[in-house]
Amino acid sequence: MMLPFLVQANNYKNSTAIYSDGRAFTYQELINQSEQLANIILNGGKDLNEARVAFMVNPGFDYVQSLWAIWQAGGVAVPLCITHPLPSLAYVLDDTTADILMLSAEYLPILEPYIQEHAIRVIIVESFNATNTITNLPEINTSRKALILYTSGTTNKPKGVVTTHENIEAQITTLVSSWEWSSSDHVICVLPLHHVHGIINVIGCSMWAGATCTFISHFSASSIFELFAEGRINVFMAVPTIYFKLIAFLETLPQEKRDQLKAVMQQFRLMVCGSAALPVSVMEKWEALSGQILLERYGMTELGMAISNPYTGERRPGYVGLPLPGVSIKLVNETYEEVNLGEPGEIIVKGKNVFVEYWQKPEATTETFTKDGWFKTGDIAIVENGYYRIMGRNSVDIIKSGGYKISALEIEEVLREFDAIDDCAVVGIKDDEWGELIVAAIVVIPEKQGLFDEKEVSDWIVQKMASYKKPRKYLIVNDLPRNAMGKVVKNDVKKLFE
Ligand code: MCA
Ligand code: AMP
Question: What is the mean pLDDT of residues 345-369?
Fold first, then answer.
């Protein structure tokens, strides 16, 4: 049996699947080339049998063909973030014990030290030349593992979220039908491709529907509007920070140019926002500038999307809408009993969309499900007049900045390794542009007073972890605020930055 995404692609062989690298690629090319790349990955073997294949590949045709090739070879795809420093990449490679690494050539230098020290097979994606060899690829059951995405949580190191082909199909199909994706859609992908938002909502849905996806290499407001102005794109998806930045850019343009862009954007079929709370002010400004009412939805790496405002019907500002078809939701109290309607509770979720496990972390996996198999999100919500509203999280140690989920504990652990730092506490403080801004209260080692240098610590930390995890403000304190038990009170740390 063919994997479901291939069954879909075969319905649209002659349509354009992707615009990237200055050209158009049809579904037929995607099918052929990914099949042949799968053969190269297999290297004479019959089936990767869920071996992990990491790939650090630029957004575009190469990315999608790599993903599809890994799946067709029977592997588990592990996308690496193209802007992460070596220690973050090495963590994922070690954790997944990936023994095949697929790369865009430009990422070879950053990974060279890792490659030198590990028996890992490297495939440079651009140098692969499609031949027309006859292929004999394995049969893949959809219950097999397909993808591992890393997510930060309340533990200090990110965990690998494992989903199967079946999970991915459920995550995609509920969106394709609810948001009425069709083969005449054309979406632009501006999101990073190591997270669900870009992989499932943009690539997964567009490729499933036989639509077209145009890639740009990285976020740039001017490039996005240039593409919009061409008049071909009709679907757009982004995080609140991106809409904030697009609004700021539009506001710098002369009125005439703004009017032209508004006329173009009014023709869009759909604009979606999610990954973090969409401020009502951003939704309103965007509507004034684009004529579009953003559709806000709620999701999670472990779930794909779970709750969404309706495609047709009221898109209520400040609310995430209703559970998507196939996704069961309950709001529960601390003992996992359902709360009364109108009371706040933790969101717990069941459905085919829900991931299977945290990679090689059986205890964390057991802990995150209730006894009867509901996934505990850690997000608190309330139902008001029929719609869900997200009220916050049950952990202050999780920060959402720029749409990225970031563990305060992970940053603290790295900061504590810095020479002059004795102790620290990292928190997220409210910020219009970034949702939350990462800040750190620092206790300097007594003998090293005066030696703490913000720039030095900033330059140092980005060599250890992704730059979006870097604290944006530091405050030197004599002591961290603690409770009677000696535990740092994060809400009091936040107040220090007010
Ligand atoms: C970057 N900068 C920041 C931050 N990030 N400042 C404060 N807080 C931050 N978090 C600063 C940089 O230091 C730099 O400043 C300037 O912004 C530009 O940096 P750059 O890295 O180029 O940023 P960017 O390209 O403008 O990135 C902003 C972004 C990006 C496009 C919003 O953060 C992004 O792509 N976010 C989306 C993440 C995402 O896809 N999340 C979905 C996962 P200077 O110039 O002064 O040095 S969540 C998910 O998948 C679930 C399922 C869901 O619900 O969707
Ligand atoms: P991630 O693990 O990166 O997938 O992030 C998932 C988290 O993002 C959720 O647990 C929520 O805390 C948050 N999130 C996603 N969408 C929304 C939204 N529309 N409103 C508020 N929070 C959101």
Answer: 97
**Which residues, in sequence order, are CB contacts of 480 under 8 Å at separation 6+?**
423, 424, 425, 441, 443, 488, 493
For ligand 2, say whether the CB of 299 is within 6 Å of any of its atoms.
yes
For the Cβ of 277 lying below 6 angstroms from any atom of ligand 2, the answer is yes
Residue 459 buriedness (CB in 10 A; 0-12 / 13-18 / 19+): exposed
Q: Which ligand is nearest to the CA of 346?
A: 2
Look at residue 188 and tell me if it is in a domain: no
Consecutive H or E run containing 189: strand 186-189
A 10 A CB-CB count for 298 gives: 27
What whole-number distance in Å separates Cα of residue 31 and Cα of residue 60? 15
Is 71 inside any structural domain?
Answer: no
Over residues 14-44, the pLDDT tens digits come to 999 999 999 999 999 999 999 999 999 999 9
What is the rounded average pLDDT of the residues 273-284? 98
Report the alpha-carbon distance of residue 381 to residue 283 in Å, rounded: 20
Q: Is the CB of 149 under 6 A from ligand 2?
A: no
Is residue 419 assigned to a domain? yes
Name all contacts of 364-372 with Cβ < 8 Å and 24+ positions apart. 364/153, 364/155, 364/159, 368/302, 370/336
- Which amino acid is it at 80? L
Residue 144 has pLDDT above 70, yes or no: yes
CATH number at residue 480: 3.30.300.30
Q: Are 152 and 410 in contact (CB under 8 A)?
A: yes
What confidence tier does 365 reach under pLDDT thresholds 50, 70, 90? Answer: very high
**Domain boundaries, position 435:** 398-496
For the chain, the distance separating the N- and C-terminal CA atoms, rounded to the nearest angstrom, is 58
- Helix or strand run (H / E) with residue 473: strand 473-476
State both tokens at 264: 């173009």
The total of structural domains in the chain comes to 1
Pull the structure tokens for residue 141: 């059951």
Q: Is 147 in the pocket of ligand 2 (CB under 6 A)?
A: no
The number of residues making up the chain comes to: 498
C-alpha–C-alpha distance, residues 184 and 148, integer Å? 30
CB 382 within 8 A of CB 376: no
> Is residue 153 predicted with pLDDT exceeding 90?
no
Which residues, other chains included, contact 173 with Cβ-Cβ below 8 Å and sequence gap of 6+? 208, 326
Task: Write down the pLDDT at residue 50.
Answer: 98
- Output the ligand 1 site: residues, CB below 6 A: 191-192, 195-198, 218-219, 239, 241-242, 274-275, 299-301, 401-404, 434, 437, 467-468, 472
133: pLDDT confidence band, cut at 50, 70 and 90?
A: low
Tens-place pLDDT, residues 64-112: 999 999 999 999 999 999 999 999 999 999 999 999 999 999 999 999 9
Q: Is 53 domain-assigned?
A: no
